[in-house]
Amino acid sequence: MVRFFLKKVADKLQGKSSKAAASLPDSVVAKPQSAHGETFQPVKEKGPQPGTSDAESGRPKRRRNRNRKPRREGETRLPDQDAGKAPAPASTPPAKAEDWNVMMFDVPPSPGKTRFHDLNLRDELMHAIAESGFEYCTPIQAQILPHTLLGKDAFGKAQTGTGKTAAFLIAIMDNLLRRPIEGERKPGVPRALILAPTRELATQIVRDAEELNTYCGFNVVAVYGGMDYEKQKRQLQEKPVDLVVATPGRLLDFLRSQDVHLNHVEVLVLDEADRMLDMGFIPDVRTIIHRTPTKNHRQTLFFSATLNDTIQRLSSQWTQDPVTVEIEPEQVAVDTVDQVVYIVTEAQKFALLHYELN
Fold this sequence. Notes:
Blueprint: H1 2-23, H2 54-57, H3 123-132, H4 139-148, E1 154-157, H5 164-178, E2 192-195, H6 199-212, E3 220-223, H7 229-238, E4 243-246, H8 248-256, E5 267-270, H9 273-278, H10 282-290, E6 299-304, H11 309-318, E7 323-326, H12 349-357
Parallel strand pairs: 1-6, 1-7, 2-4, 2-5, 3-4, 5-6
Helix pairs in contact: 4-5, 5-6, 8-10
C-alpha cells in the first residue's frame, strides 16, 4: 500500500517537471551536445516554406521570358537584356524604287494613244505613275512631253482638267533626275520654280507634285499667302530645295528678305498666265523672272487657258523658240452658263433675291 502511494507521488512530480521544461524558453532548455561538448544548432531552411507565396516570403517575383529557348547542356547564358520588355512590332520597310521595274507595269499599246512607256521616263517617275493608275497620256501630255523632256521651251494653251499640271511636273522631275547636282548645295536655292495665280491652284500643284515625287526624293516647298510665314521660311532654309511652288506676292516677300534665291533656277513654269494678267500680277511676275537666269540659260514652260495679243507678247518675251500646243476643250464652260443682269435699287435687292430663289 505504501509502495503504491510513493509511486503515484513520483509520477505526479515527473509530470510537473515536464510541463515546466516545456514552458521554459529555448535558451534555458538544455540542448543536445556532442561527445566533445559542442552544442548542435538546428539548421534553418532557407527560402519560403511549402505553401508560402513569394509575396509572403518577401522574395521578388521572377519574370520569365516565354520566348526564351531552353538552355542546352553546358551552355552559359548572359542575362537577358530585354527581359520584361514588350517585343517590338514587326515593321515593313517602305518600298524602294530599285525593287520595281517597268516590266511590272504592263500597258498594251493602243491605236491613237501614247503610253507613258513610250516617253522613256525614269523608273522613279514610272513607278509613281503606275501607282497613280495612269496608263495613257492626255492629248496635251502626248503632244508637249516629247519636246519638254528634251529641255525645249513650250507654250501650252489648255484649260484646267486637261492634264497640263502633270505635263509640266513630269518634265521637271525627269530633267532634274537626269541632271543630279554633285557636291554641297545651299538652302533656299531651288532648281525649279512654278508660279501660280492663287493659293488654291498652288495647293493642287503641290499635291500632284508629292504624288509624282513618291520615289524621286525631291524637296518640294509651297510658298503662298494665308499661311504661316515663319513655317514656310523654315522649310526653305532647313535643307536644299528642289522645287518651289509659289504665288507671286509671297515669293516676292521671301526674295526681299533674301530667304530664297532664284539665280540657279533650271526650269521656270508660268501656270494660268492669263489669270495672273487679269489679277494684276504681271509686274510682280516680271520682277521675279528678272531674278532667274536669262531665258537662254533656263527652260520656260508657259501655260494659259486663253490666247490674246498680250499673252502672246509675254510668251515671246519669256520663252525661247517655244513649241506651241493648243488643246481645245470639248465644251467651254462659259457656253453652258446663262448670265442675266438686273439693275435695281438698294431697297429692291432683297425682294429680287426672294423672287429669284422662289
